[in-house]
Amino acid sequence: xxxxxxxxxxxxxxxxxxxxxxxxxxxxxxxxxxxxxxxxxxxxxxxxxxxxxxxxxxxxxxxxxxxxxxxxxxxxxxxxxxxxxxxxxxxxxxxxxxxxxxxxxxxxxxxxxxxxxxxxxxxxxxxxxxxxxxxxxxxxxxxxxxxxxxxxxxxxxxxxxxxxxxxxxxxxxxxxxxxxxxxxxxxxxxxxxxxxxxxxxxxxxxxxxxxxxxxxxxxxxxxxxxxxxxxxxxxxxxxxxxxxxxxxxxxxxxxxxxxxxxxxxxxxxxxxxxxxxxxxxxxxxxxxxxxxxxxxxxxxxxxxxxxxxxxxxxxxxxxxxxxxxxxxxxxxxxxxxxxxxxxxxxxxxxxxxxxxxxxxxxxxxxxxxxxxxxxxxxxxxxxxxxxxxxxxxxxxxxxxxxxxxxxxxxxxxxxxxxxxxxxxxxxxxxxxxxxxxxxxxxxxxxxxxxxxxxxxxxxxxxxxxxxxxxxxxxxxxxxxxxxxxxxxxxxxxxxxxxxxxxxxxxxxxxxxxxxxxxxxxxxxxxxxxxxxxxxxxxxxxxxxxxxxxxxxxxxxxxxxxxxxxxxxxxxxxxxxxxxxxxxxxxxxxxxxxxxxxxxxxxxxxxxxxxxxxxxxxxxxxxxxxxxxxxxxxxxxxxxxxxxxxxxxxxxxxxxxxxxxxxxxxxxxxxxxxxxxxxxxxx
Length: 682
Prior knowledge:
alpha,alpha-trehalase activity, 6hp_glycosidase-like_sf, 30 helices, Glyco_hydro_37, mainly alpha, signal, three-stranded antiparallel beta sheet, Trehalase
């Protein structure tokens, strides 16, 4: 059948060594190899694990490609109990292999005994939502103020609460008692690290009760499971996401100074901290020869992710059977990072099947753990527990040594991910290298470190894009956390990291990046009517992003939160720009270069201009080559980009409205060599 995912029975069993009901070959292979299977959920934490986390129904649905999105089935509520559903399935298909099952009959079974995903949730209007929040009404620019009010209205569209029957076993949803804000699109449930930026936006909208309700939901989840899962489904029960709850509580507490609330939530925050400290730590040797405890994303599961079952299985088939369980673990661990997926985790920086997440101690996770130590120390002081406050402050000061001796690269002047087996740094640009600035996990008086990060980013070309900072500079991976996609949380952490600096020039750079990100989001919203989870930042005008395992989603919780936070942070400065300017950092980079001219530290040299620009799509465009027909060399083609892709001439033509159609100018051939033309204009 054409729609079937083609696997022979034997091959399928080798690719997926999960506990599949009735697949005795797999069990036999598992015993022979003495491999312990760790499913994403099981009878210890879920009453319906054999429906949503492993089993013949899950396998059959994906082998026959019933739904275009693997997540659809595992989000569908059952009409009967799990045992009744499985009994009926076995009665109808029990003597057949999953490949032998008739696809139409399988689809009919699903239609009869399951309901549509999302039907176990209902829409809600947050009790503290108002049409014109005071903070948003302070925004000076009238267009941005009106836009902020439109984004504020989206909170109502993204609000969900669970129906009463969810607190049972017929749903994959993890029950929480209060309403919450979902990201949007296929992400129908709560998600962990999204919530930090959602709460930032709720604070901007004055919705502190909703923020508190979401925090209480997380508290209930930690009380049940000991940590916060990736999201609100049982198939996420063995992986988390970046530890942002303590920071989320901080955002709420700073607005309310509710000490009673803080006292009630501190045991929960401690429990989560202990989870990361016990379950996600590893000892490594620093550059000074000392042993340091650092943190990594490291799930225990070694089977396909149910929400991406088909995708994981296809990729695993490209590997030897002996490597597949490690592949599944590294895939799930990358999903735990929130960066699912990025060449950041690939050993060859190209292919998903070379993923090695558990070989890496990520700089951003460790900076977040450092931040947790700092905030917990502050919280214990707020409730009067000075002894514990000192303990966490001391822990943070000690951990700064790990941040320096494990993650900091003196020659590059920046922090990087640490590869544990090779004992080396991954010298590549990813926005994660800025997170220590965001969490202030370095000595504040050591301005050289913050300057070094900015220089490294500028030299890499990370600041050069009109729509914001991309999530990597790796071209062609087709992964959603790579170029050309820019993401709200990453751009926000960069902006905030620079804004928190004591250096006025870096603070000004934070504003320029904020203006760029707001500009891009605003223009896409005006064009599409939606906020998106990610954006293609490479073009003159950004577009919704692409790549990865699913189509780009609209909504969107953390995107709205970041924009509302930036609009209220810079309420009297941000403006709707007539034309987006992609340069942004030249003044700062020149200033920092001058200020460091006497330094003896060896910094990464700026790449040759032609190579530096090679990843810009405009450079390699065939139309560009035909327009710049005199550009025999890459250097001339690079100069040509300053006419058609960026630069003061392009900006001037559009600001002055020289042509009715903006496309007219950028389609016009030059009469002279681009180098001469560029020189004459300047």
